[in-house]
Amino acid sequence: MENEGGDTSEQLLGNKRCRCNWKELEEETLFNILEELVVAGHKGENGTFKSGTHEEALKRMKNVFPRITLNVRQIVNKMKM
To answer: Distance between alpha carbon 16 and the CA centroid of its chain, in Å?
Structure first.
């Protein structure tokens, strides 16, 4: 069942959210944004991202794709993959 807005990047099943369906262009854009953030110094000495980096990545994703329905948790989960 798709959500009413017509966006297919996130599907709902009852009250539970299902997997986020990333488009290839969205993935590529996220990786480019994360690369820019690393170059800008958003990665700590221990190899993890500094506080606020995931929020900044989401903000930049929404600038590129204004109708995207992602949240920070989905970005974190995508990075784990």
So the answer is: 19
Write down the H helix ranges in 1-81. 24-39, 53-64, 72-80
Burial of 34 (0-12, 13-18, 19+ CB in 10 A): buried
What tokens were used for 45?
């000495």
d(Cα 60, Cα 30) in Å, to the nearest integer?
9
Report pLDDT digits (tens) over 49-69.
888 999 999 999 999 999 999
Instruction: Give the pairing type, strands 16-20 and 10-13.
Output: antiparallel
Higher per-residue confidence, 19 vs 49: 49
Residue 81, both tokens: 């993959």
